[in-house]
Structures are given as structure tokens and as C-alpha cells.
Amino acid sequence: MTACAPTDRKSAPPAATGGDRAWQAALRAACERPAGVAAAWRAGGGQVVGLLGWSAPRELVVAAGLLPVRLSPDRIARPDGARESMAPGLALAAGPPGDGSAAGFARELTPGTARLAAALLSGALDWIDFLLIGRDCEAHTRLFYVLRELRRSGAAPGLPPVAFFDLLRLPSRTSARYNRQRTAELSGVIAGWSGRPVTPAGLAGAVGAARETAHSFGRIQALRTRPQPAITGTDALTAAIAAQVLPVTQLRPLLAAALAAGAVPGEAVPGEAVPAARVFLAGSAVDDLTAYEALEDLGLAVVGEDHEWGDDGSEAPAVTRDPLDGIVDRYHFAHGGAARAGLRDRVGQTAARIAAAGPDGVLYLLGPHDEAAGWELALLLQRLGADTPLVPVRLRDPGPPGAEPADSERGDREPADSERGEIERGDIERGDIERGDSAHGELREAGRRLLGALGVAGGARAASRG
Amino acid sequence: MAEQAGARRRPELACTQRFTRYQRDWFAGVRARAAAGEPVALLSADSPHEIYRAMDIPYVVIQWWSSVIAAKQKAPRYLRALAEAGFPDDSEQYNSLPFGGLLAADDDPPWGGLPRPAIISASLSTDAMRQLFEAWAERSGAAFYPVEKTVDPRPDLPERWWAELPRSWDRFLPAERLDLLTDELTGLIRVLEQTTGRRFSETRFAEVMQLANEQAEHNAAARDLVAATVPAPVSIAETMPAVMVPQWHRGSTWARDAAAEFHAELDQRVADGAAACPGERVRLMWLGRGLWSSLGLYQHFQDTYGAVFVWSMYLGLAADGYARYFDGRDPLRALAARFVTVGDELRMPSWSAAWHVQQARQHQIDGVVSLGEDDYFSVRRLEAAGIPVLSIAADNVDRRTWTEDHLQAAIARFIEDRALPAAERRHHAS
Q1: Contact yes or no for A371/B92 (Cβ under 8 A)
Q2: Which end of chain B is less congested by CB atoms within 10 angstroms, N or C?
């Protein structure tokens, strides 16, 4: 995947848009191998800020001339794409064996944040220079506390500098004032990291770029929600994730190519069968492309989502006299995740997004560490009424960091024939396929139930491929 | 919290029973005021009660009422009612049980039943708080007043909060956090004035704040007495209920006087040479939420090993967590300084670990039992200080995760293997 590893961050790689569907591969590579993007950026003399969470304001990082790369705790890999052993970090996270009284700090964290901490400690994330944590949820707050204390106590002197963005979400003036103070303070921290000031012009430039990207995603969403979708949900999610990894100069032509590919009115996604049904994903976040593919294999078209990894182009900073105002408001009033959000606001926005996407039904994801999503379900059901079937899906816990498959179990053996096609199609690491197949059983089952509720037979796409 | 019927404790103090009786009478009074048409508020333990007290708006603390529900064995039914209404029954149970009670429409509720609230207020300290309380408010017809919870993002925190916060809170805490909460409380007062018709008196509020500080002083003196006295005059089986009932009435004359009574009775016991366990050999610390359903379990080890649990967070926080002196400064900002840190003392490892070690040393602790806590850093620092720790993965309110037999066996082994040798070293050194 050379397309995602440019050496010159100032110019877009022309190869990325070459060929009919080369944009797909390039976006997917960025999505799956953010370390490669980071390595290329750093090879050009740049510095990389790892972002944890939707609420870490990337515009500030861009304005400082640094590359923001949003991190997924489940997709941490070395620049060459191989999974880094996190053994040293995991050992500290898990604590000394047999010593129940001194079990490691992983007990303070969710499996995802523990995995991230282990990666930081083991060096698996040595391709980031700084870490910015957004307060999406209290698990992120907890991670910040743990990292701060590991550094302070001298237990982990090699940790990169870490900043925390304490975003408040109540839609009140007092919260707005506080968020402005914290954003200005964070600008100072990031400026210190980059060694150059964050100027109004720099912020305005970052806002402009964010708005341009959002405009592209608005158009992608329109393609997706056509009567015959012109871009798949998987491709749309891939682009949304890649947009949180790639420098805008590289992202721009790829999104343009994606839009051009789907721009012919009435033309469906090449090679795709007519979907058996259209589905909207609501509730907890999912950033695993194989989850979308699992649903598409059932013949479902994922025409929209409201989770924090998706992007329908509806949220971008407004152009304001002081660009910081537009940036703060973009995060303060974001749809974001359910955690720390208001019930009425969130459900109202979710219902509006569902109505705009026009799905036949809704799958409502309940993540194992997303308590807030469960509290929204009753009101959303009430709001949608009986005309839009909704199937709740309780997602399984991926387990603590120690549950990571061992290298020997993961990627070194040759794939079986039955798996080979999957790998070629998606160029996915084998371990991801294993996790995807096993982890998305509940999602497939929910998809089948939704198809049953709609009175539609599933498996259309799988059959058409077969 | 309400005591429950598990391993029952032996009374060690006379005052606790009086406090419990007061609580019953007080709750009957709240019900009577509600029946007479007064607005009643439901408040989370980490929201600023003092404003409601100053405005004479009767309030009930949600977590206390949840413990009453659990003690009356109503929790399964109320959780089922939540699930039947489409809400989670495995999330925020200590906050959601009263909501479940509302949905269950129980015709035989605990203590005659919780009055239907006009106001619900909670600090947004966990992910699901807003959704839970908004849903509850909608179903009950109450107004929901959320209170923001901020995080201290400084890369390096001063540790000695227990020593600095009471008098130097305005220098010790980031101004942004205090500004925010002070502004929020200002807005809340205005809303309460408009919606309840009550008037906020600055004079009365300052008095409430003074009373709360005096209550904290009595608790600190009581705590210091327990820490310094060997054998300890009382165990946590007694101090937990003796401290928490007055805490729910913080800022009232009764609560201040109750804390004084508690302190005085301890003083007398020390003067008389009375001890929880006259043959005390081992001093233990309990980290995490208490075993409210089985307080007698703490005393079991007094009988078997001469081991006394002398520290829990309940008296510890009542002593160190609340005093905010404002001499000449804005009492509302002092109240903000009291609540902006609630939970940080226990959840921020930079603060909690340092405090646990300081408290363990002050109390001459030989061993620490930690139940269901995320306390890697506390364990690490306590062990490094030569104080052994037993960590038990269990939930204090979920009986599926522990039994008395299991806890007794695990703690007994810990005392024999680690705490007794540490106690021996302490005795030799003294």
C-alpha cells in the first residue's frame, strides 16, 4: 500500500487516484495502517499527535503544523503494518503473575484503554510524538489519570507528552466559557509541542480544511442514501476513518475520486447486487470495517450511522470572527457518542439522521463499555414508532489487553483457501479477519433478525459473489 | 447508607442508634412536607446540598435511598421494572434504583415510599448520568438540574489536598474549575428561587457553610482520636453508620451537633480506656465501598485475631473532604471548591494513593483490605511503604460476587500471612 505512505507531506500522491477504484485501496490502507501514514509524515520532518476520541480537537493540531492521527485501540500497528508485540506494556498492565495484591493498572481501565496504555508502554505506538486525549467518556479520563501517574511516579519515563481536553457537553453558557478557556490552554500546549504559535490564520486554515472535508462527506452521504446506493457503507466508513488519519492534501484527491466514482446518476456500486434492505447503525461506535462487511454480506446496505467514527458531513466548525469560537462550538454541540450526552438532544438528532437516511430498519449497537447508549434506547424506540423496525445488538467485550491473540495464533500461517479471497479483497491482516468473524457473530445475527422483521431474505450480496 | 441484614454488628457507641432513629423521624417529616405540597428534591451525594438546605427545600440523597431499597430487598423488583420499561438494569444501580421504584409503582414501598420529587439534581460524574436522570425526570415530572463535573488536566498535581484544600482551596485548585462551578451554582440558585418561590439568604447560606465546616472539624477530631489511640476506641462497623447519617444532613445544626456527639462519645471511651477490641493486635484499613449489608463481618476478626478495622473512607472523607473555610471570601465559591473535587480524592490516583498512604501511616495500619477498587497506584504505594494489601475483586452491593465465608477465609489468610507479621514489626519498633 504505497499510496498511504507518501514521503512528502506537502503534496498529494498522484498514484492514489490512479485506476478505477484505487481510491478505495488508498483510503483503506490509511484506515488500517495509520502508522504508515505517520511514518511518512515523520520521515518528512513532521511530528505526529495521536488523538484518542472524537472530542480531541484536531483543528488545533493542524493549525500547529502537526499531523493529527486518531487512534483506535484495536488497530495499533507498526509502520510496516505488522502488529507490534505489546508484551512489555501488557506485563505492567497485568501486574506480576501470581501477586493478587499488586495486580497491574489494567484493572483501572477498560480493555480498549488498557490496550492503548500497553501500546504506549511497549513502544508499539512509538510512531506518535504526542498524545491528546479527548473526554469522550470517563474511561478516557481514567486513562489520562493513569498515564499522568505512571509518568509522575517514574514508572514509565518513556511515555510521550500527554494532554487532556476536558470538553463539557451541557449546552449552557457556563460550559461554553469553560470550553473556551480549556481550548485556549490546549492551543498553548500544542504550540509548545510544535515549537510554533497557533495563530488565528492557522486556525482559520484548519477550519477551512475541516469544512471542505465535511462538504465532501455530505456528498458521500448523498450517494449512499440514493434509492440505489452509489457507495457502500464500508467505503463510506473507510473514508471517514481515513479522514482522521491522512493529511488533508492527501485526503482531498481520494475523496474527490470516491465522489467521481459514484457521481453517475442512477448507477449503483459496481459489482454490488441490489441490497435486500437498507439499514442505519445507531448507538455505540464501531470502527471495524469487517463489521460493516458482515452486514453487507447479508445483503444489507448500511446507508447511515450516527456513531462517532462515521461522518455524514453535518458537523464542521463554523467560520467565526475568532476561529476558536467555531472550533469550540463544533465539539461542544457535537452529536459525538452517547457517553456524557443529553438524552433528548441525542435521541432527537439520531431520529433526524435516521429519517434523512431513509433506512428500512435500524440496528442499535450496545457496546460493552458504553452504559449511556442503553439509556437512550427506550426513547429512540418511542420516537421511531412501529414503522421503523429496530433491533438492539449487544456487542461482546473484546477482553482485556492480555487477551490479544498471540503472534503465533495470528498472522504467520498461510491462510486457508476459504479465507484467501477475503484477504485479497480487503487486504486485511489475517488477525482482523479472525477477530471480525468471531466478533461480529452477534451483528450478523441481528442483521438476519432485522431482515426477518422486514420480511426479506438475506445473503443477497454473499450469493452474488458466490 | 442504610444498614442491612447480613452479619449484624455489635453496637460500640450509643449515638449511632439515636442517629438512626432521627433519620426515620426526619424522613417521615419529608413525606409530610411533600404531602402538604412542598417541593421535594432528590440529590446525588456529590451535588451541592448546602444550597437546598439554605433555601429550606427538603431533599433526599439518592444513594441513601437506594441503600434503603436494597436493605428492604426491593432491588430485584425495581431493577426488573427498569428493564420492563426498556431501560438498563445493569447500569448505575445506586442511582437508578429509585427510578425503578417509581416505575414499579410498589404499593408497599420502603418507609412509606419516596415522595414524588419536584427537582432532581446530580453531578455529571459518569457516562450515563444525564440520560438516566433526564429519563427519570421525564417519567416523574420533575425538573432535572445537572451539575457539570470538570477534570483537572494539569500534568503535575500537588498531592497534599487534605492539608491544603480546607484553607487554601482558591490557590490549590485551578481557577477555571472554580469559576465554572460558582457560575453554575449562581444560576441554579436563581432557577430554584423562581421555580420554588423560596428565597436564597446569603446570611443563612454562610451559616450553613459554617455548620458544615464545624461538622468536618468534629469528624477530623474523631478520626485523629481513632488514629492515635491503641487499642482503637471504635471500629468501622460503628463509625460508618455513625458518620454517614449526619453527612446526609450536612449544614444543619442537628448534623453539626451529631458529629460533636460522636466525637464526645469517642473522647469518653478513650478516657475510660474502652476499646473496640481490648486485645487489639492488628490494625486494618478498608479501601472501597463498605459492606453495609454485613457490618458485623468487620468485627469477626476482632474476635478471631484481635484485628480491628480502624479506617474506612467514610470517616476519612468526612474528616478531610469537606471543610472549606471562606473567611472574607465568597462562601458560594467555597461551596464550589467543596464539590469540584468530590470523587477526585478517590478516583484520581495522584490524590488517592498519596492520601491512602498518609492515612495508613497516621492510623498505624498493619494491613489493607481493598474490595472492588481500581487502586493499582494505592496498592503500589502502600506496599512500597511496607504496608501489605489484600485486593478482593467483588462488588459490595452485589451478593453474587462474594459471601461472608469467602471474605472471612481470604481476610483470615491475609492477616495470618502478612498483617500479623507487619503488626509484630510495629510492636517491636514502638
Answers
A1: yes
A2: C
- The 10s digit of each residue's pLDDT in A14-50 is 333 344 689 999 999 999 999 999 999 999 999 999 9
Which residues in B lie closer than 8 A to residue A52 (C-beta atoms)?
Answer: none
* Cis peptide leading into residue B231 (ω within 30°): yes
Q: How far apart are CA A202 and CA B319, in angstroms?
A: 50
A396, A374 Cβ separation under 8 angstroms: no
Nearest to B282 by CA among B358, B230, B224: B230
Backbone angles phi, psi at B345, to 5 degrees: -60, -25
Sheet hosting strand A361-366, strand order edge to edge: A300-305, A277-283, A361-366, A390-394
d(CA A233, CA A225): 10
- Report the DSSP pairing between strands B282-287 and A300-305: unpaired
| Yes or no, beta carbons of A175 and B374 under 8 Å apart | no
Strands lying side by side in the sheet with B143-147: B59-61, B41-43, B119-123, B143-147
Cα three-residue angle A214-A138-A362, rounded to 5 degrees: 50
Determine contact, residues A284/A365, Cβ cutoff 8 Å: yes
Position B1 pLDDT exceeds 70: no
The 3-state DSSP class for residue B2 equals coil
Count CB neighbours of A14 within 10 A. Answer: 9
3-state DSSP assignment of residue A296: helix
Listed by number, the residues of chain B in 181-210 with a beta carbon closer than 8 Å to a beta carbon of chain A are 183-184, 187
Predicted ipTM of the assembly: 0.94
| Closest of A333, A213, A226, A214 to residue A269, by C-alpha | A226
A344: amino acid identity, one letter = R
Quote the cell numbers at residue B80.
Answer: 426488573
User: Closest-CA residue in chain A for B372?
Assistant: A107
Beta-carbon count within 10 A of B30 CB: 17
A172, A343, B137, B194, B304 from B187: Cα distances, Å = 10, 22, 19, 11, 55
Geometric angle at alpha carbon B25, from B24 and B27, rounded to 5°: 65
Mean pLDDT, to the nearest integer, of A81-106?
53
Do B265 and B350 contact (CB within 8 A), yes or no? no
Rounded CA separation A226/B357 (Å): 63
Angle, CA of B384, B386 and B390, to the nearest 5°: 90
Q: List alpha helices for B141-276, DSSP H.
A: 161-172, 175-196, 202-228, 236-247, 253-272
Looking at the partner chain, which of B86, B131, B377 has a beta carbon nearest the beta carbon of A381? B86
List, for residues B134-163, the tens digit of each pLDDT value: 999 999 999 999 999 999 999 999 999 999
Q: Give the amino acid at B328.
A: G
Q: Which residues, numbered 208 to 237 in chain B, qualify as contacts with chain A under a Cβ-Cβ cut-off of 8 Å?
A: none
Q: How far apart are CA B92 and CA B391, in angstroms?
A: 23
- Among residues A371, A130, A174, A90, which one has the least CA distance to residue B185? A174
What are phi and psi for residue B194, nearest 5 degrees? -75, -35
Task: Using alpha carbons, list the distances in angstroms from residue A441 to A21, A238, A344, A361, B360.
Answer: 29, 21, 31, 19, 49
Tell me how far apart the alpha carbons of residues B100 and B84 are, in angstroms, rounded to a whole number.
10
Query: Nearest Cβ partner of A145 from B124, B131, B348?
Result: B348
Query: How many residues are given for chain A?
Result: 466
Report the residue from B85, B184, B376 with minimal CB separation from A174. B184
| Closest chain A CA to residue B414 | A101
CB B422 within 8 A of CB B308: no
Closest listed residue to residue A343, CA positions, set A377, A385, A300, A390: A377
